[in-house]
Amino acid sequence: MSEDSWALSVDNQEASTPAMQMDFSKKVDRMRGLRKPPTDLNSNIWLEKDESEDWRGDTDKVNLAEQSLLNKIIRRSLVRNRNQVEVLQRDPTSPLYSVKTFEELRLKPELLNGVYSMGFNRPSRIQENALPMMLAQPPQNLIAQSQSGTGKTAAFSLAVLSHVNPANKWTQCLCIAPTYELALQIGQVIEQMGKFCPDVKLSYAIRGNRMQRGVKVQEQIVIGTPGTVLDWCTKLKAIDPKKITMFVLDEADVMIGTQGHRDQSIRIHRQLSQDCQMLLFSATFEDSVWSFAEQVVPDPNIIRLKREEETLDTIKQFYVLCKDKEDKFVALCNLYGSLTVAQAMIFCRTRKMAAWLSAHLSVEGHQVALLSGEMTVEQRATVIERFREGKEKVLVTTNVCSRGIDVEQVSLVVNFDMPVDMDGNADNETYLHRIGRTGRFGRRGFAVNMVDSKHSMDIIHQIEMHFNRRITILDTNNLEEMDEKLG
Ligand SMILES: Nc1ncnc2c1ncn2[C@@H]1O[C@H](COP(=O)(O)OP(=O)(O)OP(=O)(O)O)[C@@H](O)[C@H]1O
To answer: Where would one find coiled-coil regions in this protein (predicted)?
Structure first.
């Protein structure tokens, strides 16, 4: 878009003033309040219960055409096809596709019980492809890329659980993630999946989990963040690195691509024995990081996506033209008014902006949680847990939460500020991770980018070019258009 057409698009928005838009959003909220959406979005009670039921109580204030359109939007976005995942798992073009069953992947019976108890029916593509490599004898190294939310964590969790010998009361698998929240989340997946393996135990090498110097960890699996894991291996001698036979790096590109993490990961890696199996996973790998990974990991198996495969078709991407942060806020309210959002994550560039936005959303009546870098790790973990439980519907955050967090019900991601790198260029990897907080395992999701300057419009273009995907404009003042595009 040229600078002129940019100006034109922004001017066109003046047809409706922020005050009118706010009013409208409240009107929509009132209408929605007439009938509560089902809490379980897997159910299609909503559709079954009512095609005819009259829920038009507010007719004096909202005209019928508008109401029926809204009704349609709400119903469409609420009703998810129950079989969506099954359909995708049979579609060879989907990252969820698999030819084999979990049985054919030759998992131990107690692990099969674990995956089925989690409601998994079939493996995804990454699970089907990576598991045989991870479980092969002699052990093989692996660098694997797969789109956000396609089951990488579940894949390496199964490998870890299959690998350890429960009779040996020392740490055999070490798994490292970049944040406290992610380490906890991975541990929870392993605990759930391994619940029929009573003798396999796990310990968390994260800040606050104090160890006595020289006392060896007896748990077979240790999950942690790089600094604490390094302490456990070196200062505290709680783990004997030479006895580690499987080393997993989640979000591997961050772990080896950013200075602090890289130094710590390499220091841990150097202490491991030569034949320790190495597994690296991420949804993104910049070219330079990929080459570095190949240098560090001896003779690896490689699963790599083509650039155009990195984005998920199930996540629809839009941008909204705004003038300033107040205008972005109004657009957000309009969006919220028209789209039935189970849960949303909103990303801001700074803590200050995140605090401003969450305060304004609270005033509007939203149940908002704020998560940013200055909070203690315990506070952050509590915020995530409450959000996961659905106690808050909106999470306003910064990049600290852009990766890995898995909350099934997130149906909307908003980039209130576009992700940029140190030079002010598009941060494509962060963009992909942020939008990947929605559309988990085949679910539908919306990613909406707020554009308030020529610079942020340029960022959109850079992202489009990088992934070779169009991000389409959305007019949050136009209900018909929203119905068409979000329906
Ligand atoms: N085979 C499966 N069948 C059904 N659901 C699955 C399966 N594998 C994983 N899931 C679910 O899909 C969601 C995403 O999985 P997971 O967190 O492992 O993805 P990921 O690829 O690690 O994501 P990210 O790139 O964001 O870290 C989780 O809620 C998980 O429980």
So the answer is: none
